[in-house]
Design goal:
Layout: H1 2-11, H2 18-37, H3 39-50, H4 54-70, H5 72-82, H6 84-102, H7 108-125, H8 128-138, H9 143-160, H10 162-172, H11 174-177, H12 179-195, H13 224-235, H14 239-254, H15 259-269, H16 274-299, H17 304-321, H18 329-341, H19 347-358, H20 363-392, H21 396-416
Helix pairs in contact: 2-7, 2-8, 2-9, 2-12, 3-10, 3-15, 4-7, 4-20, 5-6, 5-8, 5-13, 5-20, 6-7, 6-12, 8-9, 8-20, 9-16, 9-19, 10-16, 14-19, 14-20, 14-21, 15-16, 16-18, 16-19, 17-19, 17-21, 19-20, 20-21
């Protein structure tokens, strides 16, 4: 009821309701990604309060990252069966419940249950596949730009709340640090319930760039798990899929798995305070917002493989150069600019390649599997980074190895350049 009234009001003023869906999805993605990113400022307080080691904390955090990705392809199937509103509403309830329970934990297994299982599953339901689904349903033109905007929300949300959370954790304890992101998740839930619409045709509209409303697709029937796995089996017979799988694995390895989780402890080891290090991460988030939206604009105009080559190459060089900065605020600010512009700019060209080669219906599921690879890479980096720190006393070898992996991903994107394959039926 609220959505229909708002759609009429906006339509009279020449504003497409799809932009409301973009705004809703932006807020949902921003708030749930903030829940993912909060752990970066919780590691040191948890070590101090409970006496847990970096490796012990890294285990449940790796589970969270793995579930964040492995849930994605199944989330796309669930949205096609039950709708975006229901799936998102359930996911937000699970996330908020998880962090509220985490605030009362006293045992390590409770960290596995709350931040590992509940937050991992919930945020996986609202991950990048949600943005790809909304963009695919509501936009034919400017789809790359929309994907860029929603991707920026994901990466920026993981970083934007960190300075405030770090300040709250330092002055009032880590339990109060979760409050801002929790409030944002509750607001996103209420707005989606009131204003969320599944398809443009539900309110008599055509997708942006088309003149005739597109009928709802046939209801997905049968076993959703089998359908999702069947798409994986079919796609895995193509070179495009494996390029996307490998490069996105490296993307996760070099972003939220390593930098998001271990950048603050790295800077702390080098003599910086947690608040300063969190401010540098937030700076990365600000530049990522610009870089990822710019990537969406570029994806609508240029070869996606060339863009991936450029993004992974620059990211790899910046990570390799990081240890040679003096870890001053000035030196890290330069790193934040170059790395931040490229934080997750890889998503729009990856989504475009998935839809281009595997079709509008199966493309989001294929991207979901690529995103699963992204989070598997993140989980590997989260655990390996902690183990390298415990074994060598430094995070620097992990950052150097991640930079080398990015250069290999750049080479993989160029290897596939020009290899055209037909879209799946």
């Amino acid at each position: 009821m609220f959505a229909a009234a708002l759609a009429r009001f906006l339509g009279q003023r020449g504003i497409f309701y799809g932009w409301v869906m973009v705004a809703l999805t932006f807020l949902i993605t921003l708030s749930t990604a903030a829940m993912m990113g909060l752990v970066a400022v919780l590691i040191l307080p948890l070590e101090s309060e409970f006496g847990w080691t970096a490796s012990q904390i890294g285990g449940p955090l790796s589970l969270r990252l793995a579930l964040f990705g492995l849930t994605a392809p199944f989330a796309a199937a669930l949205m096609s069966r039950y709708g975006v509103r229901r799936v998102v509403a359930g996911a937000l309830i699970m996330i908020v419940s998880g962090v509220v329970l985490a605030s009362q934990m006293t045992k390590l297994w409770q960290l596995w249950l709350t931040w590992g299982l509940m937050v991992g599953l919930g945020t996986g339901m609202t991950a990048l596949v949600l943005g790809a689904t909304v963009a695919g349903r509501w936009f034919t033109q400017k789809r790359g730009l929309v994907v860029g905007i929603l991707t920026a929300a994901n990466a920026t949300g993981q970083l934007l709340f960190l300075p405030l959370a770090a300040w709250l954790a330092a002055h009032y304890g880590w339990r109060l640090a979760i409050i801002p992101a929790t409030v944002a998740c509750c607001a996103a839930w209420a707005l989606m319930i009131c204003l969320g619409v599944e398809y443009p045709v539900d309110i008599g509209l055509a997708p942006y760039g088309e003149t005739v409303p597109v009928p709802r697709p046939a209801l997905v029937v049968g076993n959703l798990f089998s359908r999702t796995v069947d798409v994986l089996i079919e796609a895995s017979g193509t070179a495009v899929f494996w390029m996307l799988f490998f490069t996105f694995f490296v993307c996760g390895l070099s972003t939220n798995g390593l930098v998001q989780n271990h950048f603050i402890p790295l800077c702390f080891d080098e003599g910086l305070t947690t608040v300063v290090a969190a401010s540098v991460l937030a700076m990365m988030g600000a530049f990522d917002f610009v870089g990822t939206i710019g990537s969406g604009w570029l994806t609508d105009r240029f070869d996606s493989r060339k863009l991936l080559f450029m993004y992974y190459g620059l990211r790899g060089l910046s990570l390799i150069a990081l240890p040679y900065s003096d870890f001053s605020f000035f030196g890290l600010s330069i790193f934040a600019v170059f790395y931040g512009l490229d934080w997750i700019a890889t998503v729009p060209p990856t989504v475009r390649l998935a839809v281009q080669h595997f079709g509008r219906e199966k493309g989001p599921m294929v991207f979901g599997w690529a995103f699963a690879a992204h989070q598997l890479g993140a989980a590997v980096a989260s655990s390996a980074g902690a183990m390298i720190k415990d074994g060598t006393g430094s995070y620097i070898p992990a950052f150097m190895a991640s930079g080398i992996a990015c250069l290999l991903a750049a080479a993989a994107a160029m290897w596939l350049k020009g290899r055209q394959q037909p879209a799946m039926a």
